[in-house]
Amino acid sequence: MTKTYPKASRPSLDNVSVSIEKGEFVFFIGPSGSGKSTIIKLLLHEVTPNKGRVVVNGKDVTSMRSWKRPHFRRSIGCVFQDFRLLPNRTAYENVAFALEVIGKTKAVARRVVPEVLELVGLGGKEHRYPHELSGGEQQRVAVARAFVNRPLILLADEPTGNLDPDTSIEIMRLLDRINRTGTTVVMVTHDSNIVNQMRRRVIEIESGRIVRDQARGVYG
Amino acid sequence: MRMKYVLSEVLVGLWRNVTMTVAMIITMAVSLFMLGGSGLLYQKVGDMKDLYYENVQVSIFLKTDVQEQQRVDLQTKLDADPLVKDVTYVDKDQAYKRFQQMYADAPDLVNAVKADQLPESFRITLNDPQQYKQIYDQYKTAEGIDTIVDQSKLLDKVFGVLTGVQNGALALAVVMAAAALLLVANTIQVAAYSKRREVAVMKLVGASNWFIQAPFVLEAVVAGLIGSILGLLALIGVKTVAAGSSMAALEGLITPISWSEIFLTFPLMAAVGGLVSAVTAWVTLRFYLRV
């Protein structure tokens, strides 16, 4: 498929075709502006391709109506470089907020939020505010929020971009653990260390084209 | 829980930006007051038109030196005229009595005028007050007639003024409504900006559009409803003040506006206030949040 942004001189993604199986762990790598992040946006239905199709969870979402988007997004978890936590809410409240705004009751939140916070290794820190947590811990909260609804797919846009190498590896372990539960993980990064250590499928993009697609690849 | 969440968000939203909220509510109140006022005036003008035009008469004043025969001829002609519903002859004595009554406050004037100085006249009620012109054309040249006076001409002027006032109030209501609209749009933008992080997260995790928009739209609707209540209070205030002041003297002339009529305009004001705010907020969000 092809995606060209308005006013752009060349397509952000040019005739790219990728298929990711359920349960896979995939890295998209490449220099800034190569079109990696556009992949995430296409998967989230934040943008639509000019040509071609986007199929997520077996459903063609290319021409999905925007009012269906919210429900579609509930099957996808998302983690970003800048965490995107609500600063005036505790770790627990941040995760519970994601549940409550999609109509889950407080009782459900009381049951599953501590569980998922325990899973990401934040047991005992539920009632801290983001500014009382380290960067790695904040990203764990973000992962917990993305995962609390048990999505089929977890999208991670440079999740280690703001973290030091050791903390990055911890976050990667966490994503790996989530992947082992059967969740497909799609991660965009330019952190070569991480890619080399994980030895997972690597898709390299340059100027909107796929230049490499390698199982158990390295940053190269 | 969701309802509670939405409602608490509405209150927080209104309070967060309280100066803007107050400005929005006041503008809305003035606009709705004008709207309600012009609505009432419109009703009143309609009522008064029915009442006055029904009783409107054409007066044919005879020359003071009119001859008996001319008068009798005229009366016969008027009685037979299909346009005419009713004819009353007013002779000099009756005219003088009316004159005395009308100017009872000014005895000097009454004393200065003698009965035979006043003209005899025919008071004619028309089947259709609009057909005055035909009557005028038919009789203007008849013998012994001095002038033909159509009261509806005067009424037209009075109602012209009232309609003007009403249109003015309506125009002012529209201008104020435009100002209120911009304030609503601005308030919603500020509210959306201050909650941009929450909105981003809600969009990300798949909160439904109505759930994201509801607090903002309701915030505007609540402001609109408060505005309409204030507008109603203003109408009540105006009636209370008017009833106790010089306006009371006009009581006989202008049919009074009853309390029930004032309260009946409230649903109109509340509906307009609420609906306009809701639509404005919603449209603003479409552009601003792109949800």
Structural features, described:
- The complex is a heterodimer of chains A (about 220) and B (about 290).
- Chain A has 2 domains: about 1-75 and about 150-220, P-loop containing nucleotide triphosphate hydrolases (Rossmann fold); about 85-150, no CATH class.
- Chain A is about 35% helix and about 15% strand.
- By secondary structure, chain A is of the alpha/beta class.
- In chain A, the strands form 2 sheets. A 6-stranded mixed sheet of chain A has the order 4-5-6-1-7-8, sandwiched between helices.
- In chain A, strand 2 (about 55) and strand 3 (about 60) form a beta hairpin.
- In chain A, helix 3 (about 90-100) runs parallel beside helix 5 (about 135-145), helix 4 (about 105-120) packs across helix 5 and helix 5 runs parallel beside helix 6 (about 165-180).
- Chain A is built from 7 helices and 8 strands, in the order E-H-E-E-H-E-H-H-H-E-H-E-H-E-E.
- Chain B folds into 2 domains: about 1-50 and about 155-290, no CATH class; about 65-145, Alpha-Beta Plaits, CATH 3.30.70.3040.
- The model of chain B has no long low-confidence stretch (mean pLDDT about 85).
- Chain B contains 10 helices and 4 strands; from the N terminus they run ααβαβααβαβαααα.
- Chain B has a 4-stranded antiparallel sheet with strand order 2-3-1-4.
Give the secondary structure arrangement, pairings included.
The complex is a heterodimer of chains A (220) and B (291).
Chain A: E1 25-29, H1 36-43, E2 55-56, E3 59-60, H2 69-73, E4 76-80, H3 91-100, H4 106-119, H5 135-147, E5 153-157, H6 165-180, E6 184-188, H7 192-198, E7 201-206, E8 209-214
Parallel strand pairs in A: 1-6, 1-7, 4-5, 5-6
Antiparallel strand pairs in A: 2-3, 7-8
Helix pairs in contact in A: 3-4, 3-5, 4-5, 5-6
Chain B: H1 2-16, H2 18-54, E1 57-62, H3 68-80, E2 84-90, H4 92-102, H5 107-112, E3 121-126, H6 132-139, E4 145-150, H7 151-194, H8 196-205, H9 209-243, H10 259-288
Antiparallel strand pairs in B: 1-3, 1-4, 2-3
